[in-house]
Amino acid sequence: MGGSWRSRGSELTKKYGMEGEVTEIQASQQDGMNIPKTYGISVLGLHGAGQEIRSGVFDENQVRAAAGITMLMGAIALVCAYSAKEYLPIQTVTTFFFMEFVIRVRFGLQYSPLGHVVRLITHLPPQWVSAKPKRFAWTLGLVLSFAMMVITNADIRGPLPLTICLVCLSLMWLESVLGLCLGCEIHAWLVRRGWMSKDEAFEICASGACNIDGHPSGDNRSSDSVR
């Protein structure tokens, strides 16, 4: 049994670019078994702020790459709609984005279409960040993409879809180019204001967005954190 887990863990190491041990949760994902309750990828031996990170994580490099691809797709669709008056691309893209975010929010980036793409094109060492903040941010993306899908497929034109589209592109640009997850920042702000309770799964975030109490979130680089 132990050898079987180690073998499947080795396969996941190649698949996700991990180093070190892999949990049984990941092995069950690789085998196509039931989706585990833990959201994100579980990595043994990952540390931040002097303690072990127990919640699920995602590779920030892959998250930013996915944001860049969605930004490019959205920009092309927007140009087609408002320059060439071709609305089929933006109708198709917004529907795809909605389905993409549904999968990300429900199951995680590793199960979405773009998640599979970015795993093939990103070759940098993993930079692990907590999965829950990304889920919060992608929930906002899900709401915006749903609104755009309904608006564009209902043939609504004018400033409303243009404004929403520009907001979406701006958020994608902030994450892909600057590494700023605005959804993560919003969640941290809501927690500091006392409007949301602190989630213990928010442990390490890009740009320190998880630092609710002002404490450093620690190093999340794979080479130092994963045994």
UniProtKB/TrEMBL annotation:
Q: Which Pfam families match?
A: DUF4395
Note the InterPro entries from the entry: DUF4395 (IPR025508)
- State the UniProt keywords alphabetically: Membrane, Transmembrane, Transmembrane helix
Q: What is this protein called?
A: DUF4395 family protein
Q: State whether keyword Transmembrane helix applies.
A: yes
Q: What organism does the UniProt record list as the source?
A: Paracoccus aestuariivivens
- Top-rank lineage group of the source organism: Bacteria
Transmembrane regions: 63-84, 136-154, 160-183
The UniProt record lists the DUF4395 domain at 59-192
